[in-house]
Amino acid sequence: MERGQYQQSSSRPYPWPGKRLTRWGPETSNSPTSTYGFSTALPGSMTSEQQDAYVTALRIEEITQKLRANDDELLISVENGGRAPRSPSPASQYDSSGCRTNTRVRRYRERPERERHGLVQAAVETIPGYRPPRDYHQPVTTKIQDRVYLPVADFPHVNFIGQILGPRGSSLKAMNSETGATIIIRGRGSVKEGRRRGYQAAQEREQEPLHCLVTANSQQKVSHAKSLIWDVIENAISMPDELNSRKNAQLRGLAIANGTFRDDEGRSREPGGFIEHRV
Fold it and tell me: Which ranges does the record mark as transmembrane (predicted)?
C-alpha cells in the first residue's frame, strides 16, 4: 500500500465516490458567499424592501436550523460549551401531571421560538407567496409583546401619561381600537400613591422605568401601536402646549365630559371686550 492511501473495506465503503477517507468531516453547505442556502452576495439593484425581506427570510432559516438541534447540542451552543456563566434558574413550575414546564432546555428554546414566530408573521404579511418552514407550527395563543420607554428623565416637565391616556382614558382606548393591540402603562409613576396594590408582582413592576407595554397577536399590530406612541412622545416634546392639537382636543373632551365646556366658536369679540353672537 502506498503512503497516503487507505485500504477500502467491504464493511466501510467510501462515503464520497472518487475521494479517499480522511479524518475530517464532510464540507458544510455554508461558504463565504452562502449561508443556509442563501447567497450573501446581494445584487445592488435590490430595493430596501427586498433587502429587508431577504434578511428576514435568512434569519428565520438560521433560527430554524438552531431549533432542529437536539437538546444536548442546544445546551452546548447556548452555554458555549459550559464556559459561559449560567443565569440563576427560576422557581420550578409543573403542569397538572407533575411534569416540569420550565426546564433549562425549554427556556432556551422559548426565546428563539418567539423571535421566529414574530419574523414569520412579518414575512407572511410582507413577502408575497412566503411559506413558513415545514416544522413551524403557529402557537394557538401566542402574544407578542414589546415596550416603549417614556423619556421622563430627559423631559420631566412633560406629562406623557396624560397625553397617552387622555380624558378618562379615551385616547388610549382609541389607540387600542385603531391598532388592535393592548397598550398598558407600567413602571414608576404609572399608579397613584393611594392606589398601590399589595401584590409582590405589581410592586416589582412599579420599580421598572416608566414604559408602555404593547401586546398583540401579530408583529404588525405591535409595530403600529409603537408608532402611535412615538408620535405622541415626539409631539409632546417638540410642540408647545398651545400648539399641541392632541392636548387641546383632550382638554376639550375633558371639559365636555365634566359639563364645563363653553363653545366660543361662531362668536366675535367686540373692541370693548363683549362677545356678540353672529347672525
Answer: none
User: DSSP characters for 27-81?
Assistant: PPS-BTTEETTEES---TT--HHHHHHHHHHHHHHHHHHHHTS-HHHHHHHHHTT
* CA 141 to each of CA 103, 145, 151, 222, 256: distance values in angstroms, whole numbers, following the listed order: 21, 13, 32, 16, 40
- As a whole number of angstroms, the distance between CA 63 and CA 7 comes to 41
Is there a single domain that holds both residue 184 and residue 229? yes
Is 17 contained in some domain?
A: no
Non-local (6+) Cβ contacts of 146 within 8 A are: 214, 222, 226
> Do 151 and 218 share a domain, yes or no?
yes
CATH number of domain containing 253: 3.30.1370.10
Cα 228 from chain centroid (whole Å): 15
Q: What is the number of domains present in the chain?
A: 2
> Chain-wide mean pLDDT for the chain?
74
Query: pLDDT digit string (tens) for 64-101?
Result: 988 887 766 666 666 554 555 566 666 767 666 777 66
What is the arithmetic mean of pLDDT over 19-32?
55
Average pLDDT on 138-147 reads: 79
Considering the domain boundaries, does residue 15 fall inside one?
no
Domain that holds residue 251: 144-258
- Percent of the chain topping pLDDT 90: 17
Q: Is residue 189 part of a domain?
A: yes
Q: What is the pLDDT of residue 278?
A: 46
Evaluate whether residue 103 is within a structural domain: yes
Q: Pseudo-torsion of CA 244, 246, 250, 252, nearest 10°?
A: 70
Same domain for 187 and 234, yes or no, is: yes
For residue 186, which phi and psi values (nearest 5 degrees)?
-135, 165
